[in-house]
Amino acid sequence: MNKEYYTVEQISNMLDIHPKTIQRYIREGRLRASKVGKSWRINGHDLSVFIESDSNKELNTEKQSVRSALASSVIDIAVYGKEDAIRIMNTLSGALNSKPHEYGQSSMQSQYIECENMIRVTLWGDIRFMAVMMDTISILIEQRKE
């Protein structure tokens, strides 16, 4: 019996998903694979099982989010000290963690730059997510002025 095997790159092209996402699925055990040297090989049956599985419902959501409008931004926010910086960063983290699933994948990194009394926030994600985060930052800044 001749089994057909695929590489991570081939599956990435077939499913229109980034190769690192395929590798993550392998690490998480959601996609069965065999290690050959330094690369992974996935047989056709395991690929079919993966595509048809219920645990893979977000695959279509990811593909939709990739095809929608994505944005990135770096925002520098002046703060009044470490406590103010922590309050703002915690609020933004809360907003990120409570975002609706429809907004797809997103990420935020924040850094307090003490010598400049500033927070540098880097955002990436769906344009609706970005709008909500920008509004949140705007509200936080306005609240400090009052």
UniProtKB/TrEMBL annotation:
Chain coiled-coil ranges: none
Ranges for domain Helix-turn-helix: 5-53
Superkingdom, natural source: Bacteria
Pfam family of the protein (one): HTH_17
GO terms, molecular function: DNA binding
NCBIfam families associated with the record: excise (TIGR01764)
Protein name (database record): Excisionase family DNA binding protein
Organism per entry: Sedimentibacter saalensis
